[in-house]
TrEMBL record:
The lineage of its organism: Bacteria, Pseudomonadati, Pseudomonadota, Alphaproteobacteria, Rickettsiales. This is Nucleoside triphosphate pyrophosphatase. Nucleoside triphosphate pyrophosphatase. May have a dual role in cell division arrest and in preventing the incorporation of modified nucleotides into cellular nucleic acids. The gene is yhdE. Belongs to the Maf family. Pfam families: Maf (PF02545). It is found in: Cytoplasm. The keyword Protein transport does not apply. Its cofactor is a divalent metal cation.
Amino acid sequence: MDLILASASPSRLSLLANIKIIPTIIDPADIDESPLKAELPNHLAARLAKLKADKVSQKYQAGYVIGADTVTARGRRILPKAINDDDVLYCLKLLSGARHRVYTGVTVNYLAEGKIVKSSSRLVTTIVKFKNLDQYEIDEYIASKEGIDKSGATNIEGLASKFVSFINGSYSNIIGLPLHETYLMLKGLGFNQRG
């Protein structure tokens, strides 16, 4: 039975491969990811994950669909997915010397006969603390371009790893998919990775 990942994220694919779960179809959901007015970051992550899974589920007759969305926040403030150097600078200044939260919403749908038969959703939170960043560290990170297209402009697998002084919670969640929870959700819905 097909396993459909409603995301084109190389990080999510790589994470799943680490636990020998290989999606048979990659079909990123085309949705509006803008926050609603006064929407909290944890609600945004959960809502977008479900929206992605449900939208992609409409296209298939059978299988398992994984939708996920990662949001980085400082307090109630949602940090952008960086699209340029100014975004990266904005995020680094907010994160420097402070704790922040990374929320990933995950929804897994089980499809049969073109309908969602069963669904499971989870929201996972990881707390991360960055050291105080000096100007050289900020400039070096911006020049690396690692923060572009990343939630909160941080790539914990790259240069930003040296800024992290503390993590409380799932490491894979920071990268974009909480593996333990995703594995349990798939298993609970009857997914058999042996085929």
